[in-house]
From TrEMBL:
Keywords: DNA-binding, Transcription, Transcription regulation. Residues 1-21 are annotated as: Disordered. GO terms for biological process: negative regulation of DNA-templated transcription. Residues 1-10 have a biased composition (Pro residues). Residues 21-81 form the HTH tetR-type domain. GO terms for molecular function: DNA-binding transcription factor activity; transcription cis-regulatory region binding. It comes from Actinacidiphila yanglinensis. This is Transcriptional regulator, TetR family. Residues 44-63 bind DNA.
Amino acid sequence: MSVFPSPQPVRSPRRRAPRNTLNPDRILDAAITLLDRDGAEAFTMRALAEQLGVATMAVYSHFRGKEEISDAVAERLLDTVELPRTCGADPRGELREVCLGVYRLFTEHPSALQLLTTRPMRSDDAIAVIDRMLALLCRAGLSQEAAVRAHVTLMQYTVGAALWSTRRARALCGEGVRERLRTKLDALPVECYPTLASLVPQVLDAQEDCAAQYEWGLDQLLRGLLAEG
């Protein structure tokens, strides 16, 4: 029996970022990565510093705190939504592209959903998106009141569809989950669920391709909203 104490495992030191390499862009890149991976609830200055490999106070040398970083992240993400420079001859088509851009933003960056729907509207980019959508709706022939109502309707649909898509993708990401769901639906008793049992392939196809489903619903919604235009 050895009289010497067992050696303790040596923990690798946290890799620090090289001096003078930290800048606002790098901080925002890390914040977006952290938010998308762990969610807004897990976003803290300490977690962000660990993601960057720096001391927490180093982050404070560029931003006053989490709220300022969250606003900057929201602005950066919204800046990726391309807006038509002017209202052209096809307001419906341009409006469709704006909605698709917002949907892609929300599905590619789930954190944007929470940042942009639960925080006060502070970003000029957010205001620009709203202004352009309202302009396109008015140009399509809607009254001012109808344009406002249509804009809210489109945003409600887009946010809801993106939330459905991201949560469904998370729920089905486990091994074998999709196969078990398909097996369960295929085994539905026809005498109890005659319509659903006969439409299982179509139901699965519609739910599988969330982007295509969103586009289909968006086209129907635009057709109805702009029918008076």
